[in-house]
Amino acid sequence: MKKIILLLFMLFGQAKAQVVLRGNYIKVIGRGGTPPYKYNINGGRWQTSDTFKNLRSGTYTITTIDSKNCSKSIRVGLINK
């Protein structure tokens, strides 16, 4: 059975986002700010999908940006077992 880890981090001031790490994917749930949100991983291309799939074990920087260009980043570690 794979373990689910939930992390909360500050997003757009007092709002929060949730990062779900499970198996080989990361899902980000943005809260606050002004939707719609875009997401990127390790400075890559922006995407509207909040899920990054087929990831290997390692450390990733996830950035979320809202429609007013307010952004927040977090570094997360992912271990595939």
Describe the structure.
The protein is an all-beta fold and 81 residues long. The chain has a single domain, classed as Immunoglobulin-like. Helix content is 0%, strand content 49%. The protein contains no helices and seven strands. The strands form two sheets. A four-stranded antiparallel beta sheet has the order 1-2-3-5, with no helix packed on it. Strand 2 (16-22) and strand 3 (25-29) form a beta hairpin. It is elongated, with a radius of gyration of 12 Å. Mean pLDDT is 75; it is low at 1-12.
- The mean pLDDT is 75
Runs in which pLDDT lies below 50 for 5 or more consecutive residues are 1-12
For the report, how would you describe the main beta sheet? 4 strands, antiparallel
Number of strands: 7
User: What is the tally of helical segments?
Assistant: 0
Strand content: over 45%
Whole-number count of domains: 1
In CATH, the topology is named Immunoglobulin-like
CATH-defined architecture: Sandwich
What is the 3D shape? elongated
Task: Kindly provide the name of the CATH class.
Answer: Mainly Beta
> What is the end-to-end distance?
9 Å
Order of helices and strands: EEEEEEE
Category by helix and strand content: mainly beta
Q: Roughly how many Å is the radius of gyration?
A: 12 Å
Strand numbers in spatial order across the main sheet: 1-2-3-5
Give the % helix.
Answer: under 10%
In short:
This protein has 81 residues and is an all-beta fold. The protein has strands at residues 5-10, 16-22, 25-29, 38-41, 51-52, 58-65, 71-78.
Describe the secondary structure blueprint for this structure.
Blueprint: E1 5-10, E2 16-22, E3 25-29, E4 38-41, E5 51-52, E6 58-65, E7 71-78
Antiparallel strand pairs: 1-2, 2-3, 3-5, 4-6, 6-7
